[in-house]
Sequence to fold (369 residues):
Amino acid sequence: MSANKKLLFLPGDGIGPEVMGQVRRVIDWMDNRRHVSFDVAEDLVGGAAIDATGTSLDDATLDKAMNVDAVLLGAVGGPKWDNVARDIRPEAGLLKLRKEMDLFANLRPATVLPALAEASSLKEELVSGLDILILRELTSGVYFGEPRGITENADGSAEALDSQRYTSAEIERIVRVGFEMAGKRGKRLHSVEKANVMETGVLWRRIATEVGKDYPDIELQHMYADNCAMQLVRAPKQFDVIVTDNLFGDVLSDCAAMLTGSLGMLPSASLGGADESGRRKALYEPVHGSAPDIAGEDKANPLATLQSFAMMLRYSFDDIENAELIEQAVKNVLDQGLRTGDIMQDGKTLVSCTRMGEAVCAELDKLAA
Ligand code: NAD
Fold:
């Protein structure tokens, strides 16, 4: 395979650099053993960037992010920067990155590997083997809609307004991604809204139905968001891909995340629109934050970040074979009983972040032999 896959690594703060170090290890392994090479640049984001440049994402870094094939981010934030001005706080850098790259599709898989099924708050049989993908619209809807604001009335009362607004084009592009993802997975798509009480829901349902005509091999089902929340905790394995708006996606993806039992296992991807060559801007990151309580102690679980890298192989480079290799290696180390502190269980072996990364590479060696 060619060596022109350009990546930007933004390790960020706290455990970010530690978990990204394990991706570097897998990248070296891929270079040596699979002859898949990446051209990796690294830069600062979040608190680390504030310390060095006075802003959480400077223009030069943003420019690099706009011109690579994919960005991999660790995490941003920490108590050191809790009191900096709002517009330069660590999270502002991440939000700017998502906005400038126009990353409208947020992919959050919720998978429960059998080895970790007992960590879920649900019964083991309900979640063991769970593999769902929640696709959330990320750049529109009620978090961005105008008008918005709080009005202070003359009589001393106040009134708050948020606007849920979607155009047909915004709905169409996210729903299309949903059909495409379902096509690469179990061929089932749930489109989730509240068409019973919201106008945006009525339009969402109409557009999803229309777009569905272009994907006759995908089974489309419409579901109200409140029912979806119930079904996620009642029988989550009925779902393959769920596509929904910004607000419902925020809530439902966190709900689905908890089915898996651990933050340290959850990857994510955010994708932009496709250019003429079909290439999408893309940012991959673990769902967890910078975990300041364990930062610098080599205790972090690197598996969410490694799985985010596997998502990059799958969605940015269409390299399903190597993505599956990494996912299988992760399963195997867990089956061997290796655990970082966040997923530790009785009778298992506690390992460091570094040791977990080494173990994944050792498994890759065996799988590729
Ligand atoms: P967090 O995800 O950083 O940590 C929550 C708990 O989970 C902590 O006990 C932590 O030790 C543990 N944890 C998280 N990831 C882990 C991993 N990979 N391995 C082992 N344990 C892990 O959330 P928080 O404590 O609410 O936030 C800490 C900082 O991170 C804050 O500054 C917050 O703003 C920021 N944050 C950033 C992102 C991001 O960069 N996308 C997301 C969430 C929070």
In short: The mean pLDDT is 95. Residues 181 and 241 are 7 Å apart (CA to CA). Residues 16-34 form the longest helix (19 residues). The chain is about 40% helix and 20% strand.
